[in-house]
Amino acid sequence: MIYIKSNDEIKIMREANLIVRDLLAYLEEKVKPGISTAKLDKLAYEFITARGAKPSFLGYDGFPASICTSVDDAVVHGIPSEDQILEEGQIIGIDVGAYIHGFHGDAARTVAVGKISPEKQRLIDVTRESFFKGISVLKDGVRLGDLGAAIQKHAESNGYSVVRELVGHGIGRKMHEDPSVPNYGMAGHGVKLRKNMTIAVEPMINMGKKEIYVEDDGWTIRTDDGLPSAHYENTLLITEDGYELLTL
Question: Cα(100)–Cα(105) distance, rounded to whole angstroms?
Fold first, then answer.
């Protein structure tokens, strides 16, 4: 079922998503060679709870941490660890969620660890560009295929591939609600968006091939070919003539 949010519900979602926005900005400053992903997770937990919220991911289907930390060829859902120490030249996808007053916020960024190669920087840049190319078409009455097609076209025209098995989602009282929000598709097809729907749009773009696999931990998803992947996500509100980014 797709939920259309009331104005009061949207006010709460703005609060949840502002926490997410501020947390990502905070964590981006902390990403440096030598820090463990477990330390980033600890900082995130402290930040979220200090704002009166709860980490959306902690305990979600058994997930053991407050954030996802996905390094280099990890696409998404990496589990923070004391043993995973960030190294110069890596990239890390940080996905965070916050829950307050019955509603969730959700966003992700891929961040450079120190100085990275031009190839990795271009992957990060094009992933972000793909997000904005996609949402540029959004407004009341637009179909999700228009969004997915725009994301896919920009990513693939730059020589990258779009993950198929993982998609964006509706968000509100639940972290994952209908509709599914693919990062690929055909214009003119799919669910029709309506004013006051809230969705999380999150391109996951691979430097190499689109194929992925799930690691033995049951969570971390990696590229089959071992090449890097980037992730960029925001929660947004559909308006009559466009959208409102709730995590920017």
Answer: 9
Residues contacting residue 203 through CB under 8 Å, at least 6 positions apart = 127, 130, 131, 134, 151, 155, 162, 183, 231, 232, 233
Tokens for 189, please give them.
């097809």
Residue (of 33, 14, 8) closest to 237 by Cα position: 14
pLDDT in tens, 108-161: 999 999 999 999 999 999 999 999 999 999 999 999 999 999 999 999 999 999
Question: Are 122 and 151 within 8 A, CB to CB?
Answer: no
The 3-class secondary structure across 123-182, one letter per residue, is HHHHHHHHHHHHHCCCCCCCEHHHHHHHHHHHHHHCCCEECCCCCEEECCCCCCEEEEEC
Residue type, 133: K
Instruction: Select from 134, 120, 133 the least CA-distant residue to 230.
Output: 120
Distance CA(211)–CA(191), nearest Å, equals: 25
**Cis geometry, peptide bond prior to residue 179 (ω within 30 degrees of 0):** yes
pLDDT digits (tens, 9 = 90+) for 179-197: 999 999 999 999 999 999 9
User: Nearest 5 degrees, angle CA 140-CA 142-CA 143?
Assistant: 135
Handedness of CA 40, 43, 44, 45 (dihedral sign): positive
Contact (CB, 8 A) for 134 and 155? no
DSSP-derived pairing of the beta strands 161-162 and 204-206: antiparallel
Q: Which domains does the chain have, with CATH numbers?
A: 7-245 (3.90.230.10)
